[in-house]
Amino acid sequence: MYQRDLDKQKSLLAKAAIKYLQKGMVLGLGTGSTIDIFISELSKIENLFSSLKIVATSKVSAKKARDNRMNVVDPDKYLELDICIDGADEVDRNLSMIKGGGGALLWEKIVAYRASKRIYLADQSKQVTQLGAFPLPVEIIDYGHEWSAAAIEPLFKGVRLRKEATGNIFKTDSNNVIYDCLIKNEENTADLGSKLSAVPGVVTSGLFDQFIDILLTCRNGGVKEISSKENVFW
Ligand code: 5RP
Questions:
Q1: Distance between CA atoms of 145 and 162, rounded to whole angstroms?
Q2: What is the pLDDT of residue 189?
Q3: Ligand 1 pocket mutation pick from 31, 96, 119 by most atoms within 8 angstroms of CB
Q4: Is the pTM of the predicted complex or chain greater than 0.70?
Q5: Which of 41, 80, 108, 139 is catalytic?
Q6: What is the rounded CA–CA span in Å between residue 216 and residue 224?
Q7: Angle at 206 between CA 201 and CA 210, to 5 degrees
Q8: Quick one: DSSP state of residue 170?
């Protein structure tokens, strides 16, 4: 699929997601190129965005939202999130996802966990029969990360420390590192999450199971809303 078609899908998905917002809501704002488009679409509707409180899932998204005059607030004990809108890297037929391509997986999971309704936007390239063509990001604390990585390595076909284009080690907004891990074909991803969390130093992984309330995705050039596995069409 051409990049311009995917960009068009992202734009359709972003516009469709805005329809779920109501004035005065507290919004969990995701991270990534689809969410960048969502921010720019939302920025065109001042009477809506000016009424929202926004908790961002990354420093990058917080800056983009603030640059567009949106009201970005910190997570706080009394703040209930009405809705969370985010992107995805892969979605399978059970509506399990891989996320974290942009490195924001931890904050994305924390914010989504707190939200009453979670909406994910996935262009057609994200629809998969089995998770794993996209390497699974695993966030590990910086201290002793090579030991933690050695401990998770047998669970995967391969693990690779994420680096910036400059060659520097990529650091998350929580100052952790990420290993991008190739899932074994025979691996049951439901078990993988618990195996990973048993390893000291592993903070979280990009496996998002049971997070989707509504998936907005594309088919034949239009947006499809999916809220249960029975409606999955790929
Ligand atoms: C960032 C993420 C993104 O939601 C995911 O990578 C999708 O990004 P894009 O919209 O650019 O395809 O998990 O950590």
A1: 12
A2: 87
A3: 31
A4: yes
A5: 108
A6: 6
A7: 120
A8: P
